[in-house]
Amino acid sequence: MYSDRLIFKTSLGDEFFYLKDTILIKFGVNRNGISTSELNGGSHDLYKSVFNQHLSQDKIDYLENHDVGQYLINECENLDIDFNYSTGLITLAEMKNVSIVVKEYKSIEVIAVTTAGVRTNAVCAGDEAAYYEENGSFGTINTIILINSHLNHDVLAHALMVAIEAKTVALNDLKIPSQYSNNYATGTGTDGVCIFSNLESDNNLKNADKHSKLGELIGKCVIESVEKAIGKQVWITRKSQSNVLVRLNRYSLGIDEFYNNLDCNKLEFLKQLQIDSKKQENVAITTSILNLIDEMNLGLIEKQNAYDLALKIKEECDSYPVKKLLDYWINYFIHSH
């Protein structure tokens, strides 16, 4: 039933199928693994398949009054797979935006399969607790990792740690802000991870930490796949993030008063701001000032020192609109706090 939708096949015969709203992976070998899913979550000795599914609004409405675990079991029946030997993740990200990354070193192969949405639900670990759902508008980073070698349960747990850290690295590299604080995001509130090893492999690896080659491959795979998936799903890239207005948005501030008090042509001001906000020197100056605000809030730099340094850095800016905007941010987030 899947032959016309095969999108990827691994060296071990694992088959990736694109089924409208689902990415289904049917394993070519017996696999053990660790999963954050409500279907056969935790660590198990035998998995035969895994899936990642986009939730339509109808399915979101259904899940408001139904158990997620039972829903996933029902989906296994729809996919014609045995729920006893499967696990699955759900998300609002679309499966057409999946990112598949393969990394190899000698006999080790790692594959990361990621979908990602971060615009409305990005959060930093330690932010104030919140549950967010508004017409189903929440984001999720789901990553499935396949390893061609054999890992015991303790090594799978170490692999999970590395994968989660790598996801955070990808978000930091893209400067994704938390939607619940002024911090950078470390993930979303609903992320999922599944990692599987090959029970049939004679290559039984004993270590997956960041010093090991396996840990390195997992890290690089996840960083690349998460970054690519975010770019596909929500069009956030390193280029799009290199913008004064984007950077300032992490310390969000209502600026109606700022615009109302401008003593110049507002339309011309905004036109020039749009142009100047993309210039590298202005992005660098803005980032430096925001870093001072971060350091002050963490208690690493005293307020007066942060304020004095921010004013000096601002004076290096040759753009009138950017300089005006930075002055507003400095006075609000440093001088008045």
Structural notes for this entry:
This protein has helices spanning 57-63, 68-79, 153-173, 213-234, 238-241, 244-248, 256-260, 266-276, 280-297, 303-314, 320-335; strands at residues 6-9, 15-19, 22-35, 42-54, 86-91, 99-105, 108-116, 122-123, 141-147, 150-151, 187-188, 192-198, 204-205. It is elongated, with a radius of gyration of 23 Å. The strands form three sheets. Strands 1, 2, 3, 4, 5, 6, 7, 9 and 12 form a nine-stranded mixed sheet that branches. The protein folds into two domains: 3-234, L-amino peptidase D-ALA esterase/amidase (4-Layer Sandwich); 242-335, no CATH class. The relative contact order is 0.11. It has eleven helices and 13 strands. Helix 3 (153-173) crosses helix 4 (213-234) and helix 10 (303-314) packs antiparallel against helix 11 (320-335). The chain has 337 residues and is of the alpha+beta class.
The overall strand count is: 13
* Amino- and carboxy-terminal Cα gap: 63 Å
In the CATH scheme, what's the topology name of the largest domain? Answer: L-amino peptidase D-ALA esterase/amidase
What overall geometry do the principal axes of the alpha carbons give?
elongated
Q: State the order of secondary-structure elements, H for helix, E for strand.
A: EEEEHHEEEEEEHEEEHHHHHHHH
